[in-house]
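Follow-up to my earlier ticket, as requested here are the two runs.
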Amino acid sequence: MSTPGLKFTSEDYRGFLECVHCGLCLPSCPTYAENGNEADSPRGRIYLMKNVADGRLGISPTVARHLDLCLGCMACQTACPSGVHYGQLIEKARSVVEAQYSRPAVDRLLRRAMAAVLPYPTRLELALLPVRMLRAVGLGQVLESAWLRRLMPRKLQPTLSLVPVLPPLGSRHAPGEFVPAEGKRRYRVALLTGCVMSVLFSRTNQATARVLARNGCDVLVPRGQVCCGSLHLHMGFREEGLALARANLDAFSPDDVDAILINAAGCGAMMKEYDKLFAGDASCAARAESFTRKTKDMSEFLASIDLNTQFGEVKARAVYHDACHLAHAQKVRTQPRQLLQKIPGLELVPLAESDMCCGSAGPYNLVEPEMAQQLLQRKMDNLAKTGAQLVVTGNPGCILQIAQGVRERGLPMEVCHTVDVLDRAYQAARVSP
């Protein structure tokens, strides 16, 4: 639910004033790079927010449109010399929009449906049952048919192309609540299995547990864990997002583990912000700070330990795509590449504009499909020039988005998660003579 009467605060206003409007963020902003509109740049959006806070502007359809078009990719934060916390500002702005602006009925219904389904694995599995049934009887092509798309709202039409080959029904419950370390235990870690991650990428979750076990980790998968809250918070449904975050604070026990690990960049970026989300909440501020200190991306953790390098060969030419919320929000760039470079036979080649958003950005490719497709085509143009066989990244949304582009262009590429490649290398070592 939205928060009635929600407004910008004096703290938000101080954040606006940190921006000196130098424009160094402009080349890094995907929407500005695509359309050259100042109001679709970080400093332009901050200017709009400040004018709303000053009472000079209301949340009109135009203002809402410029704020909605932001991907929240955080590339501007990487570029900003003044240290403006743009991510916090745009997140608050979206909450203000939801509180003060009445969207068109179709948009309101779409956003509410996503918030009610995507973050809840059981509901998401139920929603995907028709897709499973059609594919099971050999009618999967119906999902791509023009007549079906004509029956759907325009914004929903691209969604069916995003659905990957689905893992077995119910496999989201794997790897179970505990996976023991192989050999001597060196670490005890907790794993977030996620919402969309657990339903669409349960195989990657299982691979994550295997890779961690191979590196001497006891892996705990706490009961009671839920969606990280990012989807709700990114869409402006602040109270619902905070409720999910509180549930995770209750489910995980940071003091009992060496690290809380995440294999989805967007989830990790959000969970590393729990301390800021609850800074003014005496009931859970201390727990949130402890939680944040222990939270790490999977690649970040593996690069920090004495890695088991008993890999077999993975013979492939590969590129690494920087997921926005890993590179810009978490500042994790070199670690995934360092891990991949340790795998025998894997040739890692550079990718132009590697950290430019692919257009996924959480729910963005569902609510803003036109701009998402523009950015996807830009990404695919760069990928096509590499001649790579593997596209490796650290976020499920990026995998879905780029895999769609690969299918549409008919490129001989596989899109996979960093941990999937590591797991493949470990498996190859087991079968090597």
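Run two:
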Amino acid sequence: MKRFVLSLALLSAAVGVVALAPPPDLAKTGRGFREHERNGWIYVRLEGAPEAIGFQHGSLLRPEIEDAYAVIRLDLTHDGPHGWDYFRTAAERDFWPHVEEQYRKELQGLAEGLRSQGSHLDLWDVVAANAWLELSPYYEAWRDHTPQKAPPEHCSAFVATGSYTRDHHIVIGHNNWSSYLDGSRWRIIFDIRPSSGYRVLMDGMPGLIHSGDDFGINSAGLAITETTITRFTGFDGNGIPEFVRARKAMQYASSIDDFDRIMRDGNNGGYANNWLVADNKTGEIASLELGLKNVTLLRTKDGYFSGANFPVNPKLIREETTFDPDDKSASAAARHIRADQLVARYKGRIDLAFGRKYLSDHYDSFDRKVQPGERTLCGHIDLSARGSMPWQPPFGASGTVQAKVADSRLVSRMSFSAAMGHPCGIRFNAVNHIREHPSDSWQQDLLRDIPSRPWTTFSASR
């Protein structure tokens, strides 16, 4: 696989960028590189001190970062009360004071790396983009003292171990639900070799120092993923940003206890998730449902946990969500039921093949038939009736945009298997969608086709 090593001469040839600054010193460039696109994914290795990791990130992915940031800005400002300056101010005034020094250095390095390649983006653009998933609707409601809109439902996932899996070791899987507008950009495989902490292999969006959809493994043998808590409300502006805690846990946790501690410490309630964690050293798995007021850690060495945006703790449901757990027509409830059905049917046979099946499943447990839509584990909100999910923000076409799966063998090798696009094989055509849904024409300049790509295994480079 051909690599683009981080020097300005090679980078300019690789991405068609004219260098506008003198070549950076070796301490900043290190041995960072990017590879050719493979089945929709771009593998990037970053290594060294925080400022070097950030600089490599910004330098190697400048075109992709600027493209992703255009999408993030559109997501946050379209049909909303605030322009981009509001979010830049939030980044500087309310998020930056709670970012610890090592990640400040990485974010500053990222902005410097972008600038070295002639980018107009600055530090507050970088910080705002990293806080994107917390800014709306969580932060906006807190800062503006307005009722919080329900966050969109993101993702389906599972983790299993013990007698539930074919070899009694861990298996974990996740598919990313998002708007197709931003989801088509969620295609980076980050291999991060930091000067402190554990090595990390994770998927992510260009410009984010955390995964964002949060699927990754580290060299301590932890495999980590999550799904959002549906219709959650609450935020603490004095807490530590979720993007900082998520990255720190991925980088420094060597056990479920470590992960739990890092994610709880300074919890701001932003981008509230049910985290699924597996420790490959012990075979233990856990579910950390991280609300703002209510936090529940469940763990087992013989069982499974599913993620379908369905809140688990009844007290959390009552106090921190507007979700009705008895409404089986809701997407989260229908997928939660279907997850239990599939796991029960395949108990003792859960493996990578099961993971790929689970993440591409089209059975609607409410209507009791196979029909891709909002209630299926492989999400196709665009194929559901318009307006059938009234709590969803107006992000237009959305659903599954990519998927990942790993077992104990892959985790031990710092590897996972990933598929860009719907893992079921259905492709999304942007032009056809805009033609059929002209109300989504505000997206047309940035909306892309999302073809279904084959499963591909990625490993941390030696």
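The only thing I checked on run two: The chain has two domains: 3-19+26-144, 156-459. Let me know what else you need.
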